[in-house]
Amino acid sequence: MDIKITKTKNSKLKDIDFNNIPFGKYTSDHMFVMDYANGEWGNFRIIPYQGFVLDPQSKALQYCQCIFEGMKATMGADGVPRLLRPNLNIERFNLSAERMCMATVPEDIFLQALKALIALDSSWIPKAEGSALYVRPTMFATESSLGVTPSDTYTFYIYTGPVQPYFTTPIKLVTERKLIRAVPGGTGEAKTGGNYAGSLMASQLAKQKGFDQIIWLESPEFKKIQEAGMMNLFFVVDDKVITPQLTGAVLNGTTRKYFIDILTEKKIKVEVRDIYIDEILDAYKQGKLKEAFGSGTAAVVSHISEITHGDTRMVLPDVATHVISNMLYDEINGLRAGRIKDTRNWLVPVEVNP
Predict the structure, then answer these.
(1) What phi and psi, each to the nearest 5 degrees, are found at residue 60?
(2) Which of 37, 185, 211, 224 could be stapled to 218 by a disulfide with Cβ–Cβ 3.0 to 4.6 Å?
(3) pTM of the prediction?
């Protein structure tokens, strides 16, 4: 793949305090861009970070043909940037594309683009363990037409930005029993913008009541647990870990996959199945609910301190006692930092030219 590279003449790197990098506030110097037309991808380029000129009638704006991914690049002690299982993100991106009737991106092109951009902006990768260079591949429809049909043209781009850990304190959740994020057969499994827009009202209402985020329950009964905000959910009940199965309404999280694989490898009981809120209430009342946590690219692990369902407020044990979630957090961060040996061959190095 022949990538034309145009470097910025005024790097923003000098303005960054790596000890204070709130999530999503800063973007790196460059972005990768390519275009889809006549059935193929072309015009591969890396350019200074900048805006797009978009036709007001674009199908991205009119019909929300837009998808994205969330990844991280980290720097090991040896100074080599690495990606963690990027094949999972590429696979999920293409599944999202298929669900939204958009063009897919060949894995080799996707991976080359990631490596080229991260290599160029490797100086933006924070060195502190738990911090990372957040990587956001995105694709949107560019065809100008009011016809309700898939676009014929698309733009794919990747930008990056340095981030610290997302949630640094345990979070309080409340179950949502009126609004709906997704249902089986819908677009809940796709990382498309409309899913996130549709979740905002419930999250805002929860925050007004003093909660950090919500637990989505599947309609119309509002009993089956789906996920927390935009994170996959895990519960530790007695000596086993349980997490909702994928139904088409639950995001197929890459971090979720890491956790299930690690738990299975360590011979810790893990069940992937339907989970109902009444089961969690019963486990709490019996003193069997040991931990609850969310998983996602941004936070890796989001410890949950409280869950409120109706009139019941479940206060979970202190985070320091959470054996499973703390182990998983340490495993992923230690792997990315090079502190834990990569025996699974999950890490993909990025070659940086001197």
Answers:
(1) -70, -40
(2) 224
(3) 0.95
Q: Is the pLDDT of residue 23 over 90?
A: no
Distance, in Å, from the CA atom of 85 to the CA atom of 68, rounded to the nearest integer, reads: 17
- Residue 298: pLDDT band (50, 70, 90) is confident
* Residues ≥6 apart with Cβ < 8 Å to 245: 272, 273, 274
3-class DSSP state of 336: helix
Per-residue pLDDT for 167 more than 70? no
The single-letter DSSP state of residue 287 is T
Q: At what angle do helices 323-337 and 254-265 cross, to 10 degrees?
A: 110
Q: Which residues pair with 132 in a beta bridge?
A: 163
Which residues sit opposite 244 in a β-bridge?
Answer: 273
Nearest C-alpha neighbor of 132 from the set 105, 110, 163: 163
Residue 210: count other Cβ atoms within 10 Å of its Cβ: 9
Instruction: Identify the pLDDT of residue 129.
Output: 87
The mean pLDDT of the chain is 95
